[in-house]
Amino acid sequence: MSPYIAAKAGLAQLTRAMALELARHGIRVNALAPGYVMTELNEDFLRSEAGEKLRARIPSRCFSQPADLDGALLLLASDAGRAMSGAEIVVDGGHLCSGL
Fold first, then answer.
1. Largest CB tally within 10 Å, which of 30, 39, 68, 84?
2. pLDDT tier at 84 (50, 70, 90 boundaries)?
3. Catalytic residue chosen out of the listed positions 4, 41, 44, 97
4. CB-based burial label for 40 (10 Å; 0-12, 13-18, 19+)
5. How many CA atoms lie within 13 A of 96 on its CB side?
């Protein structure tokens, strides 16, 4: 878990640093942090017993579908998000806050 956690934290900090550095050029930098997203690549695992244990830890009790990311992506890519830079949008069914 340590390499994954370090990489994820590094990406969040890199997003903020790049947003700060590139703002003067009119460039916005944001991050989308998805939780478990069901795809053809991971479907067999997520439907396995181990995957079911992961699903039970998600407050919404379901894995996301790729289309569940569309709203956040559209916000970041459109003028609706023009004042957003350095932000991290979490789309994970509540998994991030499940440890509270």
1. 30
2. very high
3. 4
4. exposed
5. 10
Write the pLDDT tens digit of every residue in 19-48: 999 999 999 999 999 999 999 999 999 999
**Spatial separation of the C-alpha atoms in residues 30 and 41, rounded to whole Å:** 26
Residue 4 annotated in active site:
yes
The pTM for the full model equals 0.85
Query: What is the rounded CA–CA span in Å between residue 40 and residue 90?
Result: 22
The vertex-93 CA angle with 73 and 79, nearest 5°, equals 20
For residue 23, give every residue at least 6 positions away whose Cβ sits within 8 Å of its Cβ, in sequence order, or none. Answer: 85
Rounded Cα gap, residues 28 and 41, in angstroms: 31
Mapped onto helix, strand or coil, the DSSP state of residue 90 is strand
